[in-house]
Amino acid sequence: MKTGYKVCDAMTNRPIGVSPETSIKECAQVMKRNNIGSVVVVDKSGRLVGHLTEQAILHEVVAKGHDASRVAAERVMAKGVATTSPEKDIFDALMRMCDLDVKQLPVMAGKRLVGILTLKDILKIQPQLFELLAEKFELREESRKPIFEFKQEGFCDYCCRYSEAVSNIRGVSLCSDCMRR
User: What is the pLDDT along the chain (181 residues), one digit of tens a residue?
Assistant: First the structure.
């Protein structure tokens, strides 16, 4: 599916960046001040070296009891960050975000960081993609749920024999012998 909108039409042009040496405390303050959920990490030459999210700060610093003022961004940031190009269709970028389970993608023109694309950016200009996004996340959540077995009397769908303990797994009735196969 193509939307006709390119990443460059929706992206934030000047992403907020920090250096690898910036403390996590400072990074969190930058995020709060700018009302954003992540920052890009760039070296002195402006090259993208990582991406730091609120979730990473929460999991890697706060939950582990580290002092945020003593931990540098480079210790927590995601390295080898997935990116997109400004010429890609926003649908393709959205699918990549869903596949990678991320909410933001840095936008690169060659080796130069030119922006950041967020789910909010996409949904602002293409709100009908929200249904697709919700469906994708719903399917992912469904696959993470445990499979419950319900045992009852009946015929096995595989071997067609009657059993007093047929398990129904995702709509398929199986006897204990066929379940072991």
Answer: 788 889 999 999 989 999 999 999 999 999 999 999 999 999 998 899 999 999 999 999 999 999 999 999 999 999 989 999 999 999 899 889 888 888 899 999 988 899 999 988 988 887 766 666 666 555 555 555 555 545 677 787 777 788 888 887 766 777 888 777 6
Q: Domain containing 123 — which CATH number? A: 3.10.580.10
pTM of the model as a whole: 0.68
CB of 50 within 8 A of CB of 42? no
Query: Whole domain around residue 162: which residue ranges?
Result: 150-180
Cβ burial of 123 (10 Å; 0-12, 13-18, 19+) is middle
Domain check: are 166 and 110 in the same one? no
- Contact (CB, 8 A) for 133 and 98: yes
Specify whether 89 is located in the same domain as 124: yes
Rounded Cα–Cα distance for residues 112 and 54 (Å): 24
Total structural domains within the chain: 2
- Contact at 8 Å (CB) between 137 and 120? no
